From TrEMBL:
Transcription regulation is among the record's keywords: yes
Gene3D superfamilies: NusB-like (1.10.940.10)
Designated name of the protein: Transcription antitermination protein NusB
GO terms of biological process kind: DNA-templated transcription termination; transcription antitermination
HAMAP family reported in the protein's UniProt record: NusB
Signal sequence interval, chain numbering: none
Primary gene name: nusB
GO cellular component, one term: cytosol
């Protein structure tokens, strides 16, 4: 597994636990690193995702829900919800990952961790969000340059 893919995988696992249990992010991340050691750059990227997504969870969910109206966010599987959050954060908030790469990585995570229908669901939702970075930033209350 490539290092950035591994970082996303660890971030997803941490976000899943936080979403499910409400445990403190630092504790969950450190426990994950103790279980699955990462090199510094991979751990740093994983932390960037986690620290970027957590404070925006509710806002990300509200925006994602607008583009998946047949699936209320409280009914979307926790793993699916976090895959979507990571991808949207990567291409619209951090803007460090090209949209197509973020979508492809999200689909790979969906194949690894989701149900049989997760990759198609993730692809559909992210496909509808692909060209809306400025709109997403505005909806999240972030400024665009």
């Amino acid at each position: 597994m490539k290092s950035r893919t591994k970082a996303r995988s660890v971030a997803l696992q941490v976000l899943y636990e936080i979403d499910l249990t409400g445990h403190p992010i630092g504790t969950v991340f450190q426990t994950r690193l103790d279980t699955e050691p990462l090199d510094k750059s991979t751990a740093d990227f994983s932390w960037q995702i986690i620290a970027g997504v957590v404070p925006l969870m509710a806002k990300l969910d509200a925006f994602i829900a607008q583009h998946a109206p047949e699936w209320p966010m409280d009914q979307v599987a926790i793993i699916d919800r976090n895959i979507l959050r990571i991808a949207v954060w990567e291409f619209a908030v951090s803007e460090t990952t090209p949209v197509k790469v973020a979508i492809n990585e999200a689909i790979e995570l969906a194949k690894l961790f989701g149900s049989d229908s997760t990759p198609r669901f993730v692809n559909g939702v992210l496909g509808s969000l692909a060209n809306r970075q400025a709109e997403i930033k505005k909806a999240l209350g972030l400024t665009t340059l």
